[in-house]
Amino acid sequence: MLKLLRQYNQWILVVGGTLLLIAFLMPSAIQGLARQSAVSGALWATYSGGDVTGADRDEAQQELRVIELMPSQILSFLGADKDPAHWWLLVHEATEAGLVGGDGDGVAALEQIASNAKIAPEQLLFNLARASGSNRDVVLAALAKVQGV
User: Fold this and answer.
1) How far apart are CA 112 and CA 94, in angstroms?
2) Is residue 98 classed as helix, strand or coil in its secondary structure?
3) How far apart are CA 138 and CA 82, in angstroms?
């Protein structure tokens, strides 16, 4: 056995090192592929009316980051502030019922929250966008959807 190990020492190191390298890099590669497929619009779920893509899931996650910054007991009671799938379903049902408006509803909700907090609406919008890591449009869309839900 030792003679065999001495004879093929270099090949054992090459093959063993390669296998170890693959074993250590595999988790990050899998995560990278999952992230890439979510961004490219891969299918996330299906329902009777169509398909939900990874981009829809990312949008729901961004909206959830905005919602988590607002203390709303109604959304907590509905369980809408934890799972992107649950939030997407609530928004989908509200949209189908015609309860979700456009950015105008988001601006109205922003002004109402700003007046309650005694802060300028632009400053509140900036704070929400910065804290959630999203942009102005995502914040306004999330506020409009909260009003609809």
Assistant:
1) 21
2) coil
3) 18
